[in-house]
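Q: Protein A?
A:
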Amino acid sequence: MMFRFLPPSLALALGLVSGIGVEAQGLQLQSSQSLSLPAPVGTRQVDFVVALVNSEPITNSELQGELQRVQQQFALQRRPLPDKNELARQVLERLIGDQIQLQLAKQSGIRIDEAAVDLAEQNVARQNQLSVADMRRQLVAEGVSMPQFRTQLRNQLTLTRLRERELEPRGRVTELEIDQYLREAQSNSGPTTQQINLAQILVVVPDDASDAQVATLRARAEALLARIRAGEDFNNLARTASDAPDRSNGGQLGMRTSDRYPSLFVDATQALALGEVSALVRSGAGFHLLKVMERQDANLPPATVMQTRSRHILLRPGPQLSEAAARDRLLGYRGQIQAGQADFAALARQHSQDSSAAQGGDLGWANPGMFVPEFEQIMNRLAPGQVGEPLVSRFGVHLIEVLERRRVETSQREQREAVRGLLRDKKLEEAYLLWAQDQRSRAYVELRELAP
């Protein structure tokens, strides 16, 4: 396997949370965006200097290793590679920028101690669901030395801390800026920005149906509508009774702009609140029942969020309990639960090592982003009632069960905070580009001939 962690890229390196915790240091593992670790030493080419940055060299081996990582990123994202020479120049420019900023950090007195590198290393291991010892063995087997690995971690932490210090003040957002953004978003609202997710139950009417057949099918659709209005779950009924091909996912048609829905669907649902169901809608295909699942303007923060209620059993590895032993113990609990031999809540009360134990491990309703990424990623994959495999987070080893999910409207305060985050990210991105260009213009850079 190949371990991956984020380079000091803008989105994370700007330190979008305060302090110097691992997330703020840009070390979250997100394989869709990440680059692999240094290329194995055995693959390095004959070395020579490709650039001097304030008299410090960047070598061909460094460039080729970074090129390999970028190419792996393109492959992961299934994107076509740009021209090889142009890609090499772009990668070299990024290495030059990083070198300039590392030099600035050193001059500014920024130092990353061994404890911070240890913490980052532990986080990389946990997010790969491995112990540190196992991760090290895997890296060595792939030709990546520990000094090389820890140097790259240290450089990422250094760049992140520098960028946090330099750019954090430029990301402040005022209440007036939020008000202005909301006014402009609302004034630009229209069919191409209004998004809606509808779910449908379809009773198909054949093209050659007789009047009697149409009446029978209408009666069937009206009976389904009556069952929904009597309290039966729309999505479950869609799975069992709809004639539509999308019935397997509860009839949901997906979030799309209003102009991409049939006009009769939009007309039938535009006056409905979230969760309400339309009267019968007749189309050329048959009779439709439509439920409004979500409604959102693309220019505005989400009006609703999906909350998850889950519970967990947490074991904290220590001198008396290794991480592997904690995994095995939780696997045993999982087997007992699935076999009906034990109750999750009872096991949590007896064994879980956190404050939720008294509530049977119940973590309550949680919005997206409330849990650490390694926990939330696994939780989001579980269906209600499903118990997952044990997972490792920075807090220990967890066994998770998802109890239920619900969609709730966000408050005005939450929407304003979402806009604040959006504007802050934009400001930081613009500030970073200007700052990086300024640092580049101040440095002495001598480019050498790249390898063919």
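Q: Protein B?
A:
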Amino acid sequence: MSLDELQRQEAEMNEQTFKLRFQWALGQTESLKKLRELRKDRARLLTILKERESA
């Protein structure tokens, strides 16, 4: 994936995380598993971005 695509995907993950956290706070969802998986995927993506920036 190109750097632009990775950054776009990071922005989408940030938005999804915000929505899930908001739903969790309101008690509308019980899928904590989905939130945890999304956080881990975002961390992996950020690691890839940092590696490419340093290279």
